[in-house]
Amino acid sequence: SVLSFLSKLLISTPASVFNIHHTYYHNLRLLTSKMPLALIARDARPLPAEAEYDTIVIMQTIITITHDQTEYTLPCTILRSRRKTCAITIDEDANIVFRVPSRATNRQIMQLAKEKSRWIITHYLEACARKNSRPHSDLSDVQRTALENRYKEAARSYIPRRVAYYHAVTGGSYKRITIRDQKTRWGSCSSKGTLSFSWRLMLAPPAILDYVVVHELCHLTHMNHSPAFWQAVEAVYPDWQNARKWLKEHGCELVL
To answer: In 10 A of CB 128, how many CB atoms?
Structure first.
């Protein structure tokens, strides 16, 4: 695996609070004609530290963070693109992703991780705990796929009706609704007016699904999370804070 391969390359640097070990990049493959090229695992070779990219580049690496006198060695992904800001995300499977501008150097990424070490470790451990507490399923792969297809079909019918119901109150204009297989991003609203929802919302209480619908509809008029956006959400769905908290605490349970 990539992780076991990279682990063999680990270089210990005890004096360093945070250290990125050897970073590797891989052969190019065109993912889609409408997207830039992305780098994916195959035939790894060293990446120049100061390389500049006109493409989206995905790199796997190993990081070491010392926090509260405990050293954590963690696999992570560094995604370089034409973005202007830096972001760190940790998904429900405890995968750590650094999203950085294409010209960001390894030194700058190290500094970012050092500054955010408390946040990284806190959320990483929380994600691990949620992952380990997921309900066990006795479904076979065939059974799970068949059941997922039933839920997806139900979502394509039910969610648009909830969108139509709340759209009469929220206003704005959308072009289409898509149902996707997303585990942590429950909904999204594009600048082109596409509303997207995870079919897994069908596993949540109906009131939670309604909150996500209202949330995305309000993005039609507020493409941000400003105070005005949350005021618009609260005007339609006053209990949004509890719904948001429920998703954060129980979203990892919305699996088959």
So the answer is: 13
84 CB-side CA count, 13 A: 0
Structure tokens at 171: 């206003």
In what helix (H) or strand (E) does residue 244 lie, and over which residues does it extend?
helix 240-250
| Structure tokens belonging to residue 175 | 């072009």
Which long-range CB contacts under 8 A does 2-9 form with residues at least 24 apart?
2/41, 2/60, 2/75, 3/60, 3/75, 5/44, 6/60, 6/61, 6/62, 6/75, 7/62, 9/62
Burial class of residue 4, CB neighbours in 10 A (0-12, 13-18, 19+): exposed
Backbone angles phi, psi at 94, to 5 degrees: 65, 25
Q: What is the dihedral of CA 142, 203, 218, 172, to 10 degrees?
A: 60
Strand partners, 45: 25
Strand partners, 177: 195
Global model pTM greater than 0.90: no
Are the C-beta atoms of residues 116 and 102 closer than 8 Å to each other?
no
Residue 53 neighbours by CB under 8 Å, 6+ apart: 80, 81, 102, 103
Q: What is the pLDDT of residues 59-98, one digit of tens each?
A: 888 888 887 888 888 888 998 888 888 989 888 788 899 9
Q: Which residue has the tokens 């800001």?
A: 85
Q: What is the DSSP letter of 162?
A: H
